[in-house]
Amino acid sequence: MNPAGSSKPQAQVATAGLSPEAARAWSAILEARRLVRAGHLPVPGATLASDSPPPTALAVSGGFIVWTASAGWEPIPAAQPAAEPANQAEAQAEAQAEVRALLELYLPLLPPQRTATLTLAHLGQSLDGFIATTRGESRYITGPANIRHLHCLRALADAVLVGAETVAADDPRLTTRLVPGDNPVRVILDPRRRLPQERQVFQDGAAPTLLVCAAGPGTPRNWGQAEVVTVAATAEGRLRLDALVAELHRRGLRRLFVEGGGLTVSRFLAAGLLDRLHLAVAPLVTGEGRRGLSLPASPALAECMRPGCRVFRMGADILFDCEVRAGAGVGTSAGAEPARVIPERRRDHGGATPDLFRIY
């Protein structure tokens, strides 16, 4: 299994919606990702053949980000612009704010080393907490900006995971069609192999694909073009998510993106297997429907998970970037550990939070 998934010609990707500065910043992020995958980052503590110490810093071409052994990936401060006419200075400040917001969101998702692991999940929901209507309609609760954000997350992941119900309802392709970047390995969780082989993820060959099911007699080697992988199951027939994560890590798939649906994301969160959760809230009220997060109840507020969060504007939607690893004890009588507080994002010169994907 190729951890990098499948590549695509960059010329085939429409990037007209990106400002030139933001497009270069995203290219720098992808270049950093490729450096990590190729094992080109210096290994702390290693020495070269000449016994000289390894470099402690590595700048990515384009001048947007730098890797250091002590801090990992960080943005390079933008150079102060020369005196320009007011309209040009305003446009440059706006472009720098867009780049800063993009880097602030995605740099924490870059691995500091090749062997580093990360499991991130995303849900897009209405104001009243639903990811689909009672009829199962979910396209699209969030707007175009957040949909493109999903494609960015896929491009930064080794593997994208979804449950069988998501494939049954949406028949998704799970590729990076809207942004430059390689397609991740697609991982479909279907304990009893209920999905038909005709679903496009099993037939289109757009990316390496795994169908994960419970171990049992008569398990086929392939499901359409997907490889069948078996993992241990619980007494209730659910896949052991810890065993699944261990198997994916064994295959070199260390950056995992759990894209849906609500039950799958909730199970990963309740099991303490998520590092980060991206929750996008759209200005929409459905009244009823399929709930996003569904977790064991906490009897007291003091026992509820309260993760550190950053907030990003994406068009009409609001994205909460939550660090949940420290709060893995959600729903237990012992209560959750307090999560580390993530500092509030910087604001632009006018005091307002920049709209991260207004440029998309």
Provide structural commentary.
This protein has helices at 20-37, 86-106, 144-155, 164-170, 241-250, 262-270; strands at residues 57-59, 65-68, 72-75, 118-125, 130-132, 159-163, 185-189, 209-214, 222-223, 226-231, 255-260, 276-281, 290-291, 308-314, 317-323. Strand 2 (65-68) and strand 3 (72-75) form a beta hairpin. It has two domains: 16-79 and 89-107, no CATH class; 117-327, Dihydrofolate Reductase, subunit A. 38% of the residues are buried. It has a ten-stranded mixed sheet, with helices on both faces. A three-stranded antiparallel sheet has the order 1-2-3. A two-stranded antiparallel ribbon has the order 5-13. With 360 residues, the chain is α/β, with parallel strands linked by helices.
Short description:
This protein is α/β, with parallel strands linked by helices. It has two domains: 16-79 and 89-107, no CATH class; 117-327, Dihydrofolate Reductase, subunit A.
